[in-house]
Amino acid sequence: MTQGMPMTNAYDEAYQRSLDDPEGFWGAAAEDLVWTRKWDKVLDDSAAPLYRWFTGGELNTCYNAVDRHVDEGRGDRLAVVYDSPVTDTKATLTFAELKDQVARFAGVLRARGVEKGDRVLVYMPMVPEALVAMLACARLGAVHSVVFGGFASNELAVRIDDAAPKVIVSASCGIEPGRVVAYKPLLDAAIDQARNKPSCCVILARPQQACDLIDGRDVDWAGAMDSATPADCVPVAATDPLYILYTSGTTGQPKGVVRDNGGHAVALKWTMKNVYDVRPGEVYWAASDVGWVVGHSYIVYAPLLNGNATIVFEGKPVGTPDAGTFWRVISEYKVPVMFTAPTAFRAIRRDDPNAELLKNYDMSGFRTLFLAGERTDPETLNWAVENLNVPVIDHWWQTETGWAIAANCMGLHPFPVKPGSPTKPVPGWDVRVLDDDQNPVEPGDIGSIVVKLPLPPGTLPTLWNAEQRFRDAYLADFPGHYKTADAGFIDDDGYVYIMSRTDDIINVAGHRLSTGAMEEVLARHPDVAECAVIGVADPLKGQLPLGFMVLKAGVDRPHEEIVSEVVRMVREQIGPVAAFKSATVVKRLPKTRSGKILRGTMQKIADNEAYRMPATIDDPAILEEIDDSLRQIGYGKARA
Ligand code: COA
Ligand code: AMP
Which fold has domain 10-315+395-489? Predict the structure, then answer.
């Protein structure tokens, strides 16, 4: 190297190229896929700030994820491993078998009138049929919308109304440790509540629990598959929607994140090699759920596009049967790269602090652990590194982005890990930190993290049925940029640090939830005059929701009764996944003089953290009252 020349590496080169010449960069990545019609333009900026990728191009995502491997002679390679400690079941599918199942199920959907552009809602537990249903939609050019099983009927109904699916695919039940979750009654109740009724439901009958089918509306999965005529892949425009995935917004109305076909396939396949460093033919495991974005991207699409086998794991990191389950799966299927949420590792560490169970398994093939969904706390990171003896990579992304914004790109150039940081922006992401006046802040200073437009391929082009909401939520506050709604900083070495959300989203066990949506539920209780929900720190789940209620004048019922009623209401109206278990009654809520509830200060009091008296507080004495109420339920000073 010439003296004085800056050192470069594969990451720096790729990163710079992706920003200097996005069309060249992503155009080259797109050559890795099979297109039925080549694109006219890699990046279409004609409607900026709304950008589209690969306009004019046509392809089929299912073809690239499944059929392609069969056509290219890899049909007998493993595509799906199903491992279900909760039902004591294991099964595998090769790419050829997966193709057969998916083509048949596409035939089932087509026979029920599903065509390109129609929506299909999928409400399924972690079984291979969930993947088959999603891929079958992609095969027909239909748009799937998967709803996580831990949501209640009401949430399901809201999504049914927004997506207006022609068909819903579901199962008789899901299995949670210690209980069978009857899905069918939840589904029936949601359809009753929804204005947009599907014309048909295809129901997978699981042996753990039977269910009744409604004549004229419901069909049995197995029976329908037996008589199905397999359907072929339908080419779609690169810009056509592949799926809608609803995620928490700031109100009870979730945001329908739209994903396109072309940019999504290009970006996800690229990440398998460059971010995760996984080779085709290897087994890749994302221990998440198909109901979340991690499941969409890294249980279903990315591994299959890259020719990897993917593991569908129906269980928990602990208790199914013990904290050695992850090690068992890694050694049994020779998993080199795994992806999960830090909370899973906190649970394992809690149950097996010295990782004794690890000694029972051959982990020699394991190369890298990736964590996301919430910040990886340094203690969890260190515990995982010490025990697994492999790089542990925190990476940061969002449902909206579909893949990592910042990561240590193991396939390009691994950097030293700095605990608490997801390392550097991934190629394609021009990450900036701005102050409220939209000026860049100094390295190390906290501000709003934004991404200069255009976002790379595979990110959300819009929100379903809500383009104005898309513009308002993501593009309006920092013109020319995408607002991540995360706050943080970038250090002198270019490492990104994510510190907090700038909105009311909290992260419970890696699950994204809106405290605003929970407040809407509490406010519906007849005795509640006013309320607030905040996220408090939790050693296992990262955060937990905590409610505060001011009761209407004259209500003199025991507070415990009201608390247990609102706890039940959140469980019934949002779902068990909200993990809303604690609330307290207070006389008043602390507010600014203009009437804004001081949630940030309440959270600091609840977590027993130092806080500054807000200059605009209406009446400082209220904070003492809040502290007293919190102490009675084990928060605030009771936490010391
Ligand atoms: N269907 C129905 N109910 C579900 C469900 C599903 N698919 N998933 C979760 N629930 C229920 C649980 O049974 C639990 O109900 P409960 O209040 O009756 O106990 C509630 O929702 C909360 O579930 P969960 O967040 O899973 O908490 P947990 O206490 O059962 O387990 C962990 C704690 C840490 C083991 C668990 O959260 C975990 O494995 N987290 C990993 C997170 C993850 O994969 N995130 C995805 C993003 S990468
Ligand atoms: P979701 O849309 O469910 O993936 O949640 C996205 C949000 O989770 C982000 O906006 C962050 O607030 C948080 N998040 C996800 N991954 C990380 C991470 N690695 N570090 C810090 N926060 C994260």
Answer: Rossmann fold (3.40.50)
